[in-house]
Amino acid sequence: MKKSFLLIAAATLILGSCAPDRSQILKVYNWSDYIDESVIPEFEEWYREQTGETVKVIYQTFDVNETMLSKIEKGHEDYDVVCPSDYIIERMLASDLLLPIDRDFGQTPNYIDDNLSPYIRSCFDKMIGGTKNANDYAVGYMWGTTGLLYNAKYVTDEEAASWDVIRNPKFADKIFIKDSARDVFSQIIIFLHQDDLKSGKVTLDELMLDSSDRALEEVENFMKQVKPLVAGWEADFGKDQMTQERGWISLNWSGDGVWAIDEAAEVGVELRYSLPKEGFTVWFDGWVIPKYAQNVKAAKYWINFMSRPDIVIRNVEETGYVSASGAPEVMEAFTDEEYDPIDLSYFFGPEATSVCADPVLYPDRSDIERSTMEHDWGERTPDLVAMWSRVKGESANAMTGIVIGVVLAAALAFALYKRFSNKRKSHKKRR
Hints:
Elements: H1 2-18, E1 25-31, H2 39-51, E2 56-62, H3 65-73, E3 81-82, H4 86-94, E4 98-99, H5 111-115, H6 118-125, E5 138-151, E6 175-178, H7 181-192, H8 194-199, H9 204-207, H10 213-226, E7 230-234, H11 238-243, E8 249-253, H12 254-266, E9 271-274, E10 280-290, H13 296-306, H14 309-319, E11 322-323, H15 328-333, E12 341-342, H16 345-348, E13 355-356, H17 365-368, E14 371-373, H18 381-392, H19 398-419
Parallel strand pairs: 1-2, 1-3, 6-7, 6-8, 10-14
Antiparallel strand pairs: 4-10, 5-8, 5-9, 5-10, 5-11, 12-13
Helix pairs in contact: 7-10, 10-18
């Protein structure tokens, strides 16, 4: 018996000695297509230069927020740094799943606090985290808006200036809606309460906290009017349908909007992006250090490195999304005389009142003043999901089937095309 115990103990020691030293490994969990991967080995070298220590990055990706959360929440996965969306950051804060991010980097500059946009900081202040401030636990990575992508040949600017356009029978079977209950609910509840907003009876921020049965019913009734006109409920293919003129209107995210506008222009199709006059939402993704992280030091250095202006610029150029960095170098990199000057002082500071930049990526101050941010629904999430299921129904309409068939038939050719395209990439995200 004693001999057996000694053998087991010896085997345990041998196996343990073969296990990797986690202080030399950084496990990063990020969205697909959401980084310039050439910066990863550069981080490893930079980390050695700054700390005198060696680290190897194990980089993994996910496509659904909840998949990432489940691995950490239920599986206690030891990811050191992950990049969830705003409402998941709130959920992780509420569930005590995040560690605070220490800003002490010794002699290394603190790129996080030196460059984070004041607008992003103020939005993170509004995240719901109980007694915790999200800015202490998360650092903004990318952000964008939710709006309407539309074909200028068939849809006027005036029509696209209101969320009401998606229930206009004139555009039947030419409308694509994101299969995202959270994003759709938020825009429609804003539209339905436009009179209350104008009169001051309610604010945009207050509307985003309304998860009542009444609010759900209002949105459900509106979307059931929209449903007969919808060509497809989509997670990723709507922008492609727009570039091919199979769709004329798409409720979409700004990053995908820019991608589609660029792609469509190459084949002579003019797409535009609108932020409706009633109001709209902004979204954010941010770096966090999960509770079960085993290399917290390397994790905070990773977040700092990702906030360095030159790395920010490379990641933006690769992904097509907009960084949370308000660094002067970033503003200069994305200034383009092709566009009219707009007021970006809310994002880059008081000197940025007249910047020539793409307004789809960087909305003018006058547009941002009509925006708000979504929140985690907490215990009400199943009710939101149930409402959305009722809206869509059990079976897809005929047009949806046709669209899916066309997409599948063209998938291989399109994939090959995208492989060699340096245009802005799709971000399979978020809700």
